[in-house]
Amino acid sequence: MVPFGPVTFTPLATIEVEGRDVRVTLHTAHDGIEYVGRLFFAESGWSNNGIPDRANLPGRNVDDVIALARTLGPEDLTLRFRRANAEKRRYHGLRQITLELLAKVRYVNQVGVSMRTGLLDASAGHQEMELTEAQMHELVEQMKHLAGVES
After folding, report:
1. Model confidence over 24-64: pLDDT tens digits?
2. CA separation for the pair 61, 139 (Å, rounded)
3. Nearest residue to 72 via CA among 26, 118, 27, 35
4. 0.85 exceeded by pTM
5. How many angstroms separate the CA atoms of 127 and 85, rounded?
């Protein structure tokens, strides 16, 4: 879910899973087409948002998404928590490098658009693209060292 608008946080429930209390929160934002909600599960004592569910809950407005989320009972929430916990990311280093690489790709595109629209002269744009390309090569080089390393 890539939010275009503000994210609404709605506490839904607290479920018990294997003797642990798990807080369930709904995060809802507009994605440019519709409102999309995603459940997050956090065990008691966690200070972060927790682990996201992989499924989205769509709606025409925030209230529709909340209403859909409230139809999920404790059993459904427990199943979704188990799925989210089983699928949680384990390779954080590689993920971080991937996000940095994607940011560089977006930047190269911005430079290209700026050059084509005349906001940036060709010489400066070419130099910026060369520098960014070198940075991207460095990131790709680091990936092989992080592949398969859990953190």
Report:
1. 999 999 988 899 999 999 988 777 778 889 899 999 999 99
2. 40
3. 26
4. no
5. 45
